[in-house]
Amino acid sequence: MTKLTDSEILSLLSSGVKAGVRFSDTKLSRERQRVLDYYHGKLPAPSHAGNSKYVSTDVYEAVESMKSTLLETFSASSGIVSFGAHGAEDVELAKQATAYCQHVVFEQNKGTELFSDIIHDGLTARVGVAKVHWDKCVEEIEETFEDQTQDEVAALLEDDEVKLTSLAVDHDDPNLASGTLTRSEDKSQVRITILPPEEFIVDPNIKCIEEATILTHRTEKNRTELLKEGYKKSLVRQLSTSNTLETDRERISRMEPFSSDTFGTGRQALQDATDVFEIMETYAYLDMGDSGNASYWRIVHCGSVILEKEQVDRHPFKTFVPLATPHTFYGNNFAARVIPTQNSKTVLTRSILDHAVVANNPRYGIVKGALTNPRELLDNRIGGLVNVTRPDGIFALPQAPLNPFVFQTIAMLDDHKEQVTGVSKLSQGLNKDAVSSQNSEGLVEQLVSAAMQRQKTCARSFAVQFLGPLFLEVYRLVIENEAKDKIIEINGSFTPCTPSAWRRQRSVTIDLRLGYGEKDRLATEYIQIGQVLAADPAIAHLYGPEQRYNLYKKVLETKGHKNVSEFLADPKQVQPPGMDPMVKAELDIKVQEVAINERKQSTAEKKVSDHAAIEQMNADLKTRITMLEYALKVSAEERKDAEVTNRIEVSQDELELARIAEAKAPQRTQRPTRSYRPTANIRDYNHRLRTRDRATGVGCCQPPSTP
């Protein structure tokens, strides 16, 4: 795969650039030069020396009237452009994006002046062109410090944007130092520039700018500016100082009323560092690697030297064509269509003025020898004397009377101009017949609205062609390059935002309610809707404070008031109004009565529950006493049984001991004795115990009955 060399790239670009230059520097340039001459009142020139030099300013009036209408429509307070939200969670971010982009356009780039320039170019040069790009700008501020300690100097240098330039240590106290440092402040921002018509080069055969395969911006830059932009010195030294813009006829015509140099309008180079070069910044689709796929490239070149080339995804140009023609990029020229009217009105008005001059100073016929001193007649002094030799020696030459249709023709030309431009006297408030006390306000608004149809069409073209794409491009540049958090004002409150976190795709919405009185009518409609909703009791629960706030907020925004919080407070942030003191006192008494009744009821319930608890405790106590008594009786019986068993065991042990002792004793004469029967004795003993138990009524194995 073979890459294109610089010479091959320049060869490819030169053909496209030359085609655009030929068209711009010949046909378009002549037309624009002619329009500017008529706009400044330089043409038409007087046909004879000594005739009236009056020039009708129809071109100027038409351009300025249309421009003022569009500027009033798209002023900073109009709020016509807004970004749409993608879901409920995106509403706040959409408001932030709208507010920040409006700040970029109207505050950072002076949007009203930009709109004025591009509308003027569109009306006088067929097309207005704006260049929107991210301008990387770092401003270095030099600061000095004196008698700072080493720790303080180290603290200053902790900032990454601070660089130490010089340092001097105090001889008396080595711990102190003085010096200078450079602080870098990033002031990069979106830059919007309106290009002069002669600096923009495009193929005239394209249908729209999106189809253009090559676009070029040619401008003048000196050697110092190129070096500040970071271009290599070796490349800048090779540049040629040839400059075709210096002698451009269109630029000369535009600068002629303000410059005495009619041969060149370029910047003067006082030194080599200020040598001026014609720099071409071209955006073109090129196949750099012979791969068969072309991509968009930005190439900065001057003559046979390429200063920079980089691949980009889009071009930075936004255009406005007031009178667009289908299937062509260049539309019609608004100002050029008024030139015939200006020529005709100028000729007719000059004839009126010349006739008035001739009527007041007619030409005279003189009989030969009738004047003694011809100088007395030529001086034409007021009240001067003219010596004549005969009374009929001087007579005024007859002249044709003024054509009675001249004034009607001028009025007809004015009507024709209104039809051509769409700017009527009624829309400018100059028609005293329509704007009178006999016509109602509604009728006047209808007449004005009908007379502004062409202006509203032009305004819609400006919004769709230029304003919407401009805000989208500003939004894209912000989210691509803005790394710092910003604080913006939304409805009177300051809100922090992070542009880099916004969604990549965003839709833009344009409010096309344009024209005289349309905003007032819309605000009146909102107020009437609020009155209808407030008067219907059936939907009172649907029309609360928040809905009222939103409606009146919309009214104020429609009227152009951005800071609504100065007039209305958000119901979500307002505490509810206090209660009437009398009603509050009565309510407090009722609350106290309810509290007393609740305490009484709780006391009675507690008394009942306490009594039930006491009864339960008494029953539990009796049960425990009965169980304890039973346990005592069982224990006594067990003790008695244990004693009986113990006595029996003792008796048995004694008998056993006696038997053993008797066995060991010597044999004696036995004498008859009564036999001892232990078993019989035990039975007898148990019998006595049972007899006693029966007498007491308690069995040894029967538990007492529970009361």
From TrEMBL:
Pfam entry (one): SU10_portal
Comp. bias (Polar residues): 667-678
InterPro entries named among the record's database cross-references: SU10_portal
Annotated region (Disordered), positions in chain: 662-681
Name under which the protein is recorded: Portal protein
Organism: Sphingomonas paeninsulae
